[in-house]
Design brief:
This protein has one helix spanning 35-47; strands spanning 2-6, 9-17, 23-30. By secondary structure, it is of the alpha+beta class.
Length: 52
Amino acid sequence: MLSGVKNGKIFYERRLFGGDGVIRTVWIDYPPALKSKYDPLVGAIAGSLKGP
């Protein structure tokens, strides 16, 4: 998982390189004003990424 600040927004990215040759990606970005609302959700969303 990669995270940081880009263009004034907080971002989280997770990539899963599947055995089937498909790259699955979750990208979430939001303004810092919503950090307390979105931070608790990011881990669960990124963790839900599945593939073969």
